[in-house]
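Section 5: illustrative case.
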């Protein structure tokens, strides 16, 4: 079973488990869920810059492997954090379908890291420019690894079968770009699902950031619009590929839309306890995910109480350049490194 269809059944299974086994059984599932999430990631901690430990050699301090020295301070990786990769796939198909090995898996036009931190009960979202130049693994038509090239990160999902295999490739590329950051799960959603997702929460309010009347007459720059149906699709997906920097503008729109969507989703959930189940059911043939029942049971009690604001949606700085027909975004390595420290690490006191 694939995609959100699996999630729909999973949520039902969790509810049944709570009812029949009671609180103790649910706690067992939560423990298993956390364990499974940790084991699912290919890495346990980011591979940050090697530390200069000379200042601590005679202090009796034991230097932990996941400590990082940055700007004169020491930071410890927060291993309670759970990180998911959310992908918007450039596919207009009505259903997610397996494709032949090659380059038809669909590019990841939207890439966001959803970061859940139970220690401070916060949600952070990191937007990744789809044109970020990074290591991309190349596979042939038989699925055999050929080489690794520097290319736009969105192209990685195009390799593979368009299903779990392509998602695995994309997760690896993003993890490597973020210094082998642990990523505990993923959801890849066809862009054709946007109108459905949008309307399930009653639509989203935005102030239009740029003129998009080429695609939808209502999307005039500066207009206050309640997005419904295809208007939401065009607002999140459309860009003029002939205009330099159009992807950065679209990423900013996606960032704005995501904040509005989360606000709308929270209001919908208050009014309808089954909203999440109904949403997953509505897109069950348009999404691929690897989330399981015990993982949901671990996460569910926390997320509703987590804080989230527009300031919690972060984008990495960098430089956008034109190379022939295509745009290339070169990530600011210092800003990327600082972002990882700020979100995934905690400052600690070490005697020195």
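Designed sequence:
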């Amino acid at each position: 079973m694939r995609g959100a269809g699996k999630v729909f059944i999973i949520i039902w299974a969790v509810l049944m488990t709570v009812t029949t086994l009671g609180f103790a059984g649910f706690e067992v599932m939560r423990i298993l869920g956390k364990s499974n999430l940790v084991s699912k990631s290919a890495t346990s901690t980011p591979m940050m810059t090697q530390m200069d430990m000379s200042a601590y050699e005679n202090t009796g301090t034991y230097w932990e492997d996941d400590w990082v020295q940055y700007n004169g301070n020491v930071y410890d990786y927060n291993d309670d954090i759970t990180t998911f990769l959310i992908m918007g796939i450039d596919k207009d198909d009505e259903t997610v379908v397996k494709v032949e090995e090659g380059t038809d898996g669909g590019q990841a036009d939207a890439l966001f890291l959803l970061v859940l931190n139970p220690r401070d009960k916060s949600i952070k979202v990191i937007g990744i420019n789809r044109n970020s130049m990074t290591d991309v693994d190349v596979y042939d038509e038989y699925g055999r690894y050929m080489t690794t090239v520097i290319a736009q990160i969105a192209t990685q999902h195009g390799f593979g079968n368009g299903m779990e295999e392509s998602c695995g490739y994309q997760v690896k590329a993003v993890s490597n770009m973020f210094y082998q950051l642990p990523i505990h799960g993923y959801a890849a959603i066809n862009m054709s699902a946007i109108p459905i997702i949008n309307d399930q929460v009653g639509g989203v309010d935005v102030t239009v950031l740029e003129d998009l009347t080429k695609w939808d007459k209502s999307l005039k720059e500066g207009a206050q619009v309640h997005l419904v149906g295809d208007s939401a699709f065009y607002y999140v997906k459309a860009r003029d590929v002939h205009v330099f920097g159009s992807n950065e503008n679209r990423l900013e729109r996606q960032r704005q839309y995501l904040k509005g969507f989360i606000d709308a989703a929270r209001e919908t959930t208050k009014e309808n306890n089954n909203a999440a189940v109904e949403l997953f059911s509505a897109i069950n043939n348009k999404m691929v995910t690897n989330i399981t029942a015990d993982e949901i049971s671990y996460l569910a009690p926390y997320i509703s109480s987590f804080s989230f604001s527009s300031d919690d949606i972060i984008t990495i700085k960098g430089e956008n350049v034109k190379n022939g027909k295509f745009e290339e975004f070169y990530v600011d390595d210092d800003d990327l490194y600082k972002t990882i420290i700020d979100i995934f690490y905690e400052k600690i006191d070490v005697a020195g």
